[in-house]
Amino acid sequence: MRxxxxxxxxxVCLFPSLVLGISLTDYQFPESSYQELYLDAALNQxxxxxxxxxxxxxxxxxxxxxxxxxxxxFEYAITGxxxxxxxxxxxxxxxxxxxxxxxMNIIGKKYLQGMADDKLFGFGEVSGHYRKxxxxxxxxxxxxxxxxxxxxxxxxxxxxxxxxxxINEDLMKYNIIQTNIPDDAxxxxxxxxxxxxxxxxKYGPVEYKKxxxxxxxxxxxxxxxxxxxxxxxxxxxxxEEILDPAKEPMSAREHGWVVRAGVGVVASDYDxxxxxxxxxxxxxxxRPLGIRFQFSDKLQYATVFExxxxxxxxxxxxxxxxxxxxxDWYNTWNLSYMHPTAEGLDDLIGNNLSSTFRYYIAxxxxxxxxxxxxxxxxxxxxxxxxxxxxxxxxxxxx
Length: 398
Fold this sequence. Notes:
The chain is about 20% helix and about 50% strand.
């Protein structure tokens, strides 16, 4: 009997999703969109005395913007910024100088409905950068890069559902609710959490929290699980802490797989020259195991279409386990292989393994201990293993 009780308790601790009847793989993100636009300006002026000095000054003006849309069949993101900097030194006769910077990036992905179980997609990316550096008399030529290709599969970030499940666990812990939140309500709550950027864009960086938290609490009320008409203060505090990554960090929870390949080219670089086309191909598989475990593997291949090309292959295997709300355990193995085809060059093989325990102390301190093992081998040379241990202490100022 004691053994059965112990096993049941172990299952509840390690796999609470089995008790709830929901899995992180059940999550699909909702349709969402938001826009952001920021303007920054600064002016600094200095006064000096003397015959060989003049009034010095410096300043800048910068505008940043982003437009994002996400849905299961289609998503895109447009980001960009423009900036102007100017300055003049204090030496008498020194001329004022200026610099400007303009950048834009457009990324899009479209799933082809009705084809290959709606998992076949095309993607494209265009970026442009135009700049004049402070010390230069003329601007560089615009840099333009284009990438496009096709892929199959889908990876869903379900971290928001993990946060919703954590909210359920804490509300049960503090007797704010006596029954688990229904599965459909947990999904609905996760989709509200997914739209945090949308709330921030609509209501502002401070005021949005009121509407954001109200929408989360509304899911609880509609599900009929609250014991009172209003959420008590402890529930409000715990929801706010769980939804704030700075106060309660959580490693990513993703599920799915995807393969994609694309061809890109630097159509024009800062010197006005075009680059050779290049090929990028990736394959990724990721899956949460319960609520606290996360496994992922990502394989990448890249090469440039040129004489005597170099073939680069990397594989990153990762395993994460959330020991508690305050302790995460990260493990990664990165394998890299570089095969140059030019005569006289040998292959290079590298292995890097790391294991990190990260402990979050209250809301301000973070301690991370990392063990590393690295090995590289060039051609027929004997490789050497290197071991290391690092301890990092981080304090959050604000």
